[in-house]
Design goal:
CATH class of the largest domain: Alpha Beta
Shape: globular
Order of helices and strands: EEHEEEHHEEHEHEEEEHEHEEEHEE
CATH architecture of the largest domain: Alpha-Beta Barrel
Largest sheet: 9 strands, antiparallel
CATH superfamily of the largest domain: D-amino Acid Aminotransferase, subunit A, domain 2
Strand content: 25-35%
Number of helices: 8
């Protein structure tokens, strides 16, 4: 990751080097953190944060699920994010707000540990590699599966949940693939290490249901909205592993991955190995929002001081959310 000048930590913007936590913080020992990944884009209409309110709301939802009492309101966290992007003079960036249990308790029971909140920003390109949005990626089914729904909550974006994701990702990379696909405890397709998955067959889009130990992604929801707008049939359903081997198109979604086509699964070529027409159409509509600010449906929060032609460099701190167009 690229180093930035400032980090927001517990209500203050401080130098990057000063953003430190104690070695006995509960989160280090037990994974008791909740976080989000958010992107700010340099659109034709100025710099704008995508799904700011939705991401912050999910951060608070994750904290509530794990019984963490947030010391700030959602509005305060949203404002802090905008201020930090401004302070670091980003035109576009990745944003990582994180809530974690600090010192005060060091046992499985976290009661008594402090609750700390921090926000970092940095410049980050394509998550799965260069040119993947056009050329696609090669993936494999992981030997690791997702947790059963009654073990711990997949719907919370918590640090400890991602130990499973790390195993999936490392195995895939070591075997020469960009990403791994996990099955759920019943043997059906679940998701990637950090992305939701969509499968297209005979013009219909399919995606796993929320109860299949997936994180119901915000980008996933955006794609479902775009598909409805474009009158492309889409359903949430159980998907067998072999369906991916005979799919016409497959793509993965996430804040970092955006809409990334899959060109092969376990060395089975998907379609003709190129980005398919439906994936391309969805991708184009999504990029019309994040690159041009068009038909944005209220998804973008523009930053005050950003030029309408995207040429100004310094951003203000006032939040102005556009209306759907």
């Amino acid at each position: 990751m690229n180093k930035t000048e400032k980090i927001w930590m517990n209500g203050e913007i401080i130098p990057f080097e000063d953003a430190k936590i104690h070695i006995l913080s509960h989160a280090i020992h037990y994974g008791s953190s909740m976080f989000e990944g958010i992107r700010c884009y340099d659109t034709d209409k100025g710099s704008a944060i995508l799904f700011l309110k939705e991401h912050v709301r999910r951060l608070f939802d994750s904290a509530k699920i794990y019984r963490v009492e947030m010391p700030y309101t959602q509005e305060e966290v949203e404002k802090a994010i905008v201020e930090l992007v401004s302070e670091n003079k980003h035109r576009s960036c990745y944003i990582r707000p994180i809530v974690y249990r600090g010192t005060g308790a060091l046992g499985v029971n976290p009661t008594g540990a402090s609750v700390e909140v921090a926000i970092a920003t940095w410049e980050w390109g394509s998550y799965l590699g260069e040119d993947v949005l056009e050329k696609g990626v090669d993936v494999k089914f992981s030997t690791w599966q997702r947790q059963a729904p009654n073990t711990f909550p997949a719907g919370a974006k918590a640090g400890g949940n991602y130990l499973n994701s790390q195993l999936i990702k490392m195995e895939a990379v070591m075997d020469g693939y960009a990403e791994g696909i996990a099955l759920d405890v019943f043997g059906y397709v679940s998701e990637g290490s950090g992305e939701n998955i969509f499968v297209i067959r005979d013009g219909q889009i399919m995606t796993p249901v929320s109860s299949q130990s997936i994180l119901p992604g915000i980008t996933r929801g955006a794609v479902m909205t775009i598909a409805e707008d474009l009158d492309i049939p889409l359903k949430e359903t159980m998907i067998n592993r072999e369906m991916l081997y005979v799919a016409d198109e497959i793509f993965m979604t996430g804040t970092a991955a955006e809409i990334t086509p899959v060109r092969s699964v376990d060395k089975y070529t998907v379609g003709d190995g190129k980005i398919g027409p439906i994936t391309k159409k969805l991708q184009q509509s999504y990029f019309d929002v994040i690159k041009h600010g068009e038909n944005s449906r209220g998804w973008l929060t523009f930053l005050s001081g950003a030029s309408t032609n995207g040429t100004d460099g310094v951003l203000g701190s006032k939040i102005t959310t556009n209306s759907a167009s």
